[in-house]
Amino acid sequence: MSNKELDPYTAKAENNNHTPQEKIEGLHAIVKNVKTGMLTTRSASGHLHSRAMAPAGPVGPTQVTVVFIANKVSHKLDEIENDSHVNVSFYDPSTTNWASYSGIAKISQDKEKIEKHWSSATSAWFGDLGDGVHKGDRNDPRVAVIEVIPDEIRYWIATRGKVGQAVDIAVSAATGKTAAPGELRTITKDEIQLVQGLTTK
Predict the structure, then answer these.
(1) Where is the General stress protein FMN-binding split barrel domain (predicted)?
(2) Which of 6, 49, 112, 174 counts the highest number of beta carbons within 10 A?
């Protein structure tokens, strides 16, 4: 039997008939609603470490990257410098929508990028150390930008409310059919490169 026959849920849920821009709009809806993602990095010993972080944005309608403001001296930056392959995931329990970015993280202290993504609330994560240098503002030397450039983005978006999902699952369980009360969408590497190319023009 083929993989599709053995995994009927994925086969039924997959829908890649949308344009790249339509896929990005669905993705942004999830990220903006969830507000906090889990950034997963790999340590030098091979262990995977995840932590909750609030992305800065998305700030544009075609943005496919994920950007975080972070402390340059934190362990996660050490891990990114050791292995830049990362994952960022989002989950919305109110809808069951989720999104997963797999890609490469780049660290920057570019002033323009920091200015673009800085918000007044960000200073709370740094604090003013009282030495006149580490003031917890956008000019603090600890401030860095983590930009995740995805190779692939996969996300699930519900096409039914919670009641509809429950009914679909119950009926499928009773009849031996496969439940799929939503769509599984993939933004491919080619689509990501296409959008990034259009954005930089």
Answers:
(1) 23-178
(2) 49
Residue 3 lies in a domain: no
CATH number at residue 68: 2.30.110.10
Q: Do residues 96 and 156 make contact, with C-beta atoms less than 8 angstroms apart?
A: yes
In the block, tokens 């990114």 appear at: 80
Domain span holding position 13: 8-198
- In the chain, the number of structural domains is 1
This model's pTM is above 0.85? no
Q: For residue 165, is it within any domain?
A: yes
| CA nearest to 157, candidates 31, 38, 69, 27 | 27
pLDDT by residue (tens digit) across 115-143? 999 988 899 999 999 999 999 999 999 99
Per-residue model confidence as pLDDT tens digits over 91-114 = 999 999 999 999 999 999 999 999
